[in-house]
Amino acid sequence: MNEISTAPGAPSPDSGSGPDSGSGSDSDSDSGGVLDEALQRLHASGPERVVRLTNHGPMAVESLVHNGQAHTVHRWLDHYRHKLEDMPARVAPIGDDDWRAALGDPRRAADWIDHFARALAERPWREVLAAWWPVLLPGIAGGSTHPVIRVGHAVRGLTAPGGRTAPRVAELAHGLGYWAARHTPLPPRAPRPLPAAAGAAAALAAVERVPVQDGGLPDRFAQLASVPVWPAGPATDPEAAHARLGDLVTAAVHRYATHGHTDPIMLVHAATAPNAVLRTLPALPRALWPASLDAAWAASAAVTAAYGPAAPAPADELRTAYGEAGRSTFDEVFARAAAHGDDHTIKFADTALDVGDERARAAALRGVELNPPAL
């Protein structure tokens, strides 16, 4: 990122996205009003709790509203609020000349959120997003990929009809600020070639597990030594990058049905992180799409290496989910996830709904089976 585009209030890059979408008010939309109320409830809280655990509230409530479950949002928040913690203390304002020193410093989370709130008050949100995306993208793995997922939900909320409301702009500031505070590049990894025709499913299957699948995500990521080269050649064409990113999300969702059993919480991120990037692409300059694919693949492969099992689940363990998927609509499947109440289960079902086929419904139902219910 060049100097001029990093500074708040500086001239922005050509976003290629046109004017901001949304009318600035959602007062005539019951579901939009519920989302804004929920975000306002959540913004007094910090992005994390108990040191490194993520506040999933904003992502879960946006998923619920987007998928027709707005009526469940405040009840869900009432159950979730005991997990929230106050916004951490501020250290010092982050300025144009010292932001690099604060990048990746989790103690500066509140400072970073303030920084982006100021930037978004001065410039259209698409310009701020486009200016900072290349800076933040190399740190996509930070915070167990939750920051980029939060940004993806924030962008979807902003691009919904009437979505450019103050709470949703503030949510983007929280998501970007969290990402900047937890910005953590993956370690260098040796590239391993794949057959030129290998698709996303084959690429995920070729990921080698880390030697010791134990401890927290930083400990596991530190063991990463290699990554399959996918796609086979550089995705310089934006449309090809978009299509391949969609293939990756589909493959990761499908794989969860058969391989999510070893760590059903953490393995959802192999799908939800790239899907967050995919949701954000339309709000970004097309020139940034190929690098976005590369980062999303790196994150998905890293999560797969850190938590993936050595073998798929036995076929008899999958019969219930696949049988129910064949009889259920996606509205019914998502309603099951909403009633289940676990935040990761809700967010994964939301990503599976984007994929939209029967195997994706089965994967969402596996999430309901594998994760302990929260409600």
Gyration radius (Cα, Å) is 20 Å
Quaternary: single chain
- Sheet with most strands: strand arrangement: 1-2
Largest sheet: 2 strands, antiparallel
The end-to-end distance, rounded to whole angstroms, is 44 Å
Helix content: 40-55%
Describe this entry's structure for a reader.
With 375 residues, this protein is mostly helical. It is 55% helix and 3% strand. The protein contains 18 helices and four strands. The strands form two sheets. The chain has a two-stranded antiparallel sheet. Strands 3-4 form a two-stranded parallel ribbon. Helix 6 crosses helix 9. The longest helix is centred in the middle third of the chain and has 22 residues, at 238-259. The radius of gyration is 20 Å and the shape is globular.
Task: Give the key terms.
single chain, 375 residues, mainly alpha, two-stranded antiparallel sheet, 4 strands, disordered N terminus
Tell me the layout of helices and strands.
Blueprint: H1 3-6, H2 30-42, E1 48-49, E2 53-54, H3 57-66, H4 73-80, H5 99-102, H6 109-122, H7 125-136, H8 146-159, H9 166-181, E3 190-192, H10 200-205, H11 217-221, E4 226-228, H12 238-259, H13 269-280, H14 289-307, H15 319-327, H16 330-340, H17 343-355, H18 358-370
Helix pairs in contact: 2-3, 2-9, 3-4, 3-8, 3-17, 6-9, 7-9, 8-9, 8-13, 12-13, 12-14, 12-17, 12-18, 13-14, 15-18, 16-17, 16-18, 17-18
